C-alpha cells in the first residue's frame, strides 16, 4: 500500500430499518456517505457536511452517534488504505436524494447486503452497524 486516505463516513439508517449506501460517479461499488475532511475540519463536522452534500440530509451534529475508527482497502484509490471515523445517523425512510458527485443511492435491507456491490470498508466494517 502506498498511501492512506482519511475520511468521515456515516451509517445512515432509515426508520424502516434500511441502510443508505451511495455510489460515486465513476465508481463500481457502493459505500456509506462521507468523504475527506476539509483542512481544519474535524471528523464530525466533515461527516455532517458530506452527508448533506451527498444525500441532501441536513442533520444536527448531535444526531450522529460515534462508532469508532475503521480501516480497510480503499475502493476508489488503488494501492491505498482508507481510515474512516464512522458515525451512525437515524433518519426518516426515503429522506435522501443523490447530490454532489453521487451517481446513485440505494436503501438496503440486511438481507440484500450479501448481493450488493459494496466497498471493502462498508462490507467488512460499517454496514453491520445499521442493524445493531
Automatic annotation (TrEMBL):
Keyword vocabulary terms for this entry: Hydrolase
UniProt cofactor(s): Mg(2+)
Entries under Pfam families matching the protein: NUDIX
Xref: InterPro entries: NUDIX_hydrolase-like_dom_sf, NUDIX_hydrolase_CS, NUDIX_hydrolase_dom
Origin: domain of life: Bacteria
Ranges for domain Nudix hydrolase: 2-131
A Gene Ontology molecular function term of the record: hydrolase activity
Protein name in UniProt: 8-oxo-dGTP pyrophosphatase MutT (NUDIX family)
